[in-house]
Amino acid sequence: MEVGEKRKQRQLQKEKPYRGIRMRSVGKWVAEIREPNKRSRIWLGSYSSPVAAARAYDTAVFYLRGPSARLNFPEYIVEEDEVRDMSAAAIRKRATEVGARVDALENALRRASSAPAPDSKRVSVKPDLNEFPDPEDSDRD
């Protein structure tokens, strides 16, 4: 890793683009949340993008604190989800499912955008070398 990349990662870490997440020194984004009225934390997983970690955090905080919770992405919380008393394990499971799904989608989008685009000007048709040339296709004037 280059010095410039490390510096950018440290700046991102200091900025904390979303609530409830942090960046590890290896470049992964992690999410965890403190249980209400307890000192313990619920581990929500590590992800390759800050958005996935933030979505996992949002899911957990919604189930812990209800509709009045401060969310990173309030538009993605489904109103039909009923807030009920859930265990820490159930909240962790639900949050990691959401985070993993978002992480997979973001990785797929990243791979698709980094794939080389086909060159529209070049036509790459390989001729069959065992076939005789068609006299109609020749350029005779």
From TrEMBL:
<keyword id="KW-0010">Activator</keyword>
<dbReference type="InterPro" id="IPR001471">
    <property type="entry name" value="AP2/ERF_dom"/>
</dbReference>
<feature type="compositionally biased region" description="Acidic residues">
    <location>
        <begin position="131"/>
        <end position="141"/>
    </location>
</feature>
<keyword id="KW-0936">Ethylene signaling pathway</keyword>
<keyword id="KW-0805">Transcription regulation</keyword>
<dbReference type="GO" id="GO:0003677">
    <property type="term" value="F:DNA binding"/>
</dbReference>
<dbReference type="InterPro" id="IPR016177">
    <property type="entry name" value="DNA-bd_dom_sf"/>
</dbReference>
<keyword id="KW-0804">Transcription</keyword>
<dbReference type="GO" id="GO:0003700">
    <property type="term" value="F:DNA-binding transcription factor activity"/>
</dbReference>
<feature type="region of interest" description="Disordered">
    <location>
        <begin position="109"/>
        <end position="141"/>
    </location>
</feature>
<keyword id="KW-0238">DNA-binding</keyword>
<protein>
    <recommendedName>
        <fullName>AP2/ERF domain-containing protein</fullName>
    </recommendedName>
</protein>
<dbReference type="GO" id="GO:0009873">
    <property type="term" value="P:ethylene-activated signaling pathway"/>
</dbReference>
<feature type="domain" description="AP2/ERF">
    <location>
        <begin position="17"/>
        <end position="74"/>
    </location>
</feature>
<keyword id="KW-0539">Nucleus</keyword>
<dbReference type="GO" id="GO:0005634">
    <property type="term" value="C:nucleus"/>
</dbReference>
<comment type="function">
    <text>Probably acts as a transcriptional activator. Binds to the GCC-box pathogenesis-related promoter element. May be involved in the regulation of gene expression by stress factors and by components of stress signal transduction pathways.</text>
</comment>
<dbReference type="Pfam" id="PF00847">
    <property type="entry name" value="AP2"/>
</dbReference>
<comment type="similarity">
    <text>Belongs to the AP2/ERF transcription factor family. ERF subfamily.</text>
</comment>
<dbReference type="InterPro" id="IPR036955">
    <property type="entry name" value="AP2/ERF_dom_sf"/>
</dbReference>
